[in-house]
Structures
1.
Amino acid sequence: MQFIGEWAANEGRNLIYFQPQVLETFSSYVQVKSNDLEAGGVLLGYVRGSHLEIVEATAPTKFDKRFRYLFERMRDLHDAIAHKRWAQSDGTIRYLGEWHTHPENNPSPSGIDLREWHALATKRKDGRPVLGVIVGRHGLYVENTPRLGEPVRYEPIL
Ligand SMILES: [Zn+2]
């Protein structure tokens, strides 16, 4: 599965670029078989004005709870990686959001997903939105959830 790496919202005023290694991580956890479990992690990258460049998607750790229709992160390990990258990059590579898989061809967020993204956005110390990515079998779902106001849905640039 080759996912699309360039996404846009608000007539192109907001762009998101997923670097190839991020798409490879997504591809390696697609729930192809009927017993494949959900996977996920955090998204790290650069803020470039009103655009985002995603450079890393952390892989599930052995401490995460993985089920067929549910993925629960043990936040500490993912947060530790995020903090390490932030320190190594002099604060330029930062936490941008969350990703997880769904056993659907074209995924859409569950009520739990929407509530979690909003709760995370409310908790962010830097006040930035939380990017939520769902990895399906045929495509991604990409949405940026601010602390206040409506979430912004991104569409692939074909
Ligand atoms: Zn979900």
2.
Amino acid sequence: MLTVDTLQRITEFNGDGLPVLSVYARVNPANRTDYQSQVGSLLHQMRAVADDPDLSHEAMVSLRDDIAAIKAASEQPQPDALGVAYFCCSGRGLFEQVELPRPVRERIVVDQTPWVQPLTLVLEEYHRLRIAVVDRANAHFWDLYQDEIEDRGRLRDKHLRKPDYAYGDREYETRNKVETLARKHYRKVVEQLAEDARNREFDLLAVGGHEEELPEFVDFLPRDLRDKLAGTFQVDPNVAANSDRGVLVERARAILEKWERAEEERLVAETYERRAMRAPAAIGLPECLWGATTAAIDLLLVQEGAQAPGVVCDESGWLGLRGDTCPICGKQTRETPDVVDELVQAVMDESASVEHVLVQGTRLESDLVAAKLRFPLPPAEFDQA
Ligand SMILES: [Zn+2]
């Protein structure tokens, strides 16, 4: 699991005079054996750089070690990822391998700092869910990210049992004390969550607990945490803590999925609404391809599984559905079985966001792609479709 700490270490790393090698590779699920030779040929492009006489001896040694380290890592069996990113600076002890849930364009980059942009754009689509299982005296935190769960520790407070004998003022006093302690505990839990949220440890929150205590705790959430609340679920905190982690994962995943589908629906509705209001938007492949060619796209929505043949000009970056020659530069185009994938990679290259839409039954299902634009599409002097 990619932790916040790892991501931070990568993004904040500086070679301090030594080169940092960043490699992005694609895994073809149909042919995973390709992977090694693919990474090998990417690394091969770097050999000449490593032999550059202008490099200091230290930099040269570090870069050669980077190449060897990434090559060795690529020869290990690869997990179920669709892409892999490597960040390496051997002379300063950096080696990170990050598995990506989406394919990325193959790249090799050497610079003073890791090249993280494609990584952050892919990960932006995945939400980190903090699960807080709370009762009146305990809280247990978990993080769910890309289907993996991590225990983030507990918070225990003093606890008074509610008396089951009852008489007069004494009962009232005890009950009062119980309430006060519970409130104190809830405040502490909320403070902890607020701090972790500020440190970007999670972006969504799910709260589990006893049916009658859930609303009590949710009332304590300040505005910014409530905005992150994706849902609540009933669970016996003892069961959640001790035995069945599977139940916890299942409930949390259901909440996350429901939230994500609702979010997708909202984004699709917003984009079509923009069109209706004559705000900059692109609907369907011809417009979105032109939008990517002109770097107009701010957010691209892609129906999951969408695929369509098309053409690409590797010279000017023009994307189209057909045509032997590029209408912009006149060069010969390259045919591709999936221009949607080319579109996604082009949009990421422009540092714009991509959201894969899994929810079905929206208008996007027939249009395949739609986009919010930064500015209206420039008129094209040719037929884009
Ligand atoms: Zn061209």
